[in-house]
Amino acid sequence: MKKIIADREIDVNEEGYLVDFNQWDKDVCAYLADEQGISMTDKHWEVIEYLQDKHHKEEPLSIRGIKKSGVINIKEFYSLFPGGPLKKSTLIAGIPKPKSCI
Amino acid sequence: MKNLVILGAGTSGTMMANHLVSSLPKGEWKISIVDQYKTHYYQPGFLFLPFDIYTTKQVKKKGSKFLPKGVNYIQEKIDLIVPENNKVLLADGQELLYDVLIVATGTKTVPEEIEGMKGPKWYKNIFDFYTYEGAKALRNKFRTWEGGKLVVHITEMPIKCPVAPLEFAFLADSYFKNKGMRDKVDITFVTPLDGAFTKPRATETLHYLLEEKNIKEVTDFNIERVDYENNKIIDYADTEVEYDLLVTVPTNMGDPLLERSGLGDDLNYIPTNKTTLQSTDHENIFAIGDATNVPASKAGSVAHFEAEILTDNILRYINGEELKEDFDGHANCFIETGGGKALLIDFNYTTEPVEGTFPFPGVGPLRLLKESRMNHMGKLAFRWIYWNMLLKGVPIPFVDAQMSEKGKQIEKVQ
Hints:
The complex is a heterodimer of chains A (102) and B (414).
Chain A: E1 2-5, E2 8-11, H1 26-35, H2 42-56, H3 63-68, H4 74-80, H5 85-93
Antiparallel strand pairs in A: 1-2
Chain B: E1 2-7, H1 11-23, E2 29-35, E3 39-41, E4 60-62, E5 71-75, E6 78-82, E7 87-90, E8 95-97, E9 100-103, E10 107-109, E11 126-127, H2 132-144, E12 148-154, H3 164-178, E13 185-190, H4 200-212, E14 215-218, E15 223-227, E16 232-235, E17 240-242, E18 245-249, E19 252-254, H5 256-260, E20 285-287, H6 300-318, E21 331-338, E22 341-347, E23 356-360, E24 364-368, H7 373-390
Parallel strand pairs in B: 1-2, 1-9, 2-5, 9-20, 11-18, 12-13, 12-18, 13-14
Antiparallel strand pairs in B: 3-4, 6-7, 7-8, 10-19, 15-16, 16-17, 21-22, 23-24
């Protein structure tokens, strides 16, 4: 389905996650963050870049990964993306949320 | 004589030995397989053991029974892989030189990763069911348990057989209903993911199962520690879930051998090309099953499909031909839903579990993503197939290594 994000038509799935990473840019990112009640800081951007890098290398995203990332510790991760941090940060990063097989 | 060495005689290793003994040129290759344990477990049976559906005898057999003649079986602990010298060191001091190495060392549960999990209450009111010992201890606990808060919990992903915890919750519901004490048992499913079902299609078609069985969900729960003195699990956001009986799936990790040998990632899985199954760092090292880091489910069916493709690629490698990029992440799993019914799912890297019929387009007899008694019979029949066909590398009729899209309502993953 389509959604207007930052004045553009973007393809998203039922849960609002981007379908095509090529449509992601910093404007889209800031818009999605705003929808989640998050205003982006340098630290947020750093985390987003880390997640995108892991995703492009096809490495699974996990809290353990965050712990070892060297970018941020887990408590900070929770405070930057309150609620479900992995769920929210992946949405904002334009990559699929971590999921199981069903 | 050239040497092919297989590390691990579990589901994957045993299948590879059986495939290769009949396909490698005779007289030119010696195949050795190393495993420290005598017993081969039917791991899908661990799900049924706690509920007295299977007996202990039905889930274990002597491993060497399933290895073909003509394969050199070594029962010994593996100390180290030395890729630079193409050799494997065993704990008893033996050295095995290899021309081709297959890593099939699987995955294990590591409850020590979470503070308080494997403490004084381990196997008292904190259990796993991913090991023979855990499943059996839990069976004994359930037999006399008088009820209370049952928490079924996943520590972190990835785990072997990702749907097993959910099946466990469904079977627990049936078990306590049959014992006439369901009203005394409160079942909660706790997951680090955003739901018991995580894909939109599955959530839509299957969420009713949780409601119908009165199973509560706690989502986005990333456990930090177990407070075993006060019987609660606590996550990084300080959310607490109380339990009387905690059934957890601990962190899953690859064999410490891979860490010792410098071949593993963060979780000791070996980086592997997801389509060819060749390790990314060494061209004569291949990997299969739960030991790899490929983004497919860690499940026996995946290992089975991988085995066919890996056999082909090893023959190509030996002949100096280009490897085939054939593995598509195909998985095919029965999911017990309790009450003598089950679901069947079929999916791969790019396709979500779909509705339709299996294995015959339009006919079935098994139906995908729908509960049925026939699917449950399929799951039970699978134990026979496992011991008698799958391990021995006998092809399972009508089921191909690559996923077929016929008779299914295909939707590509977005």
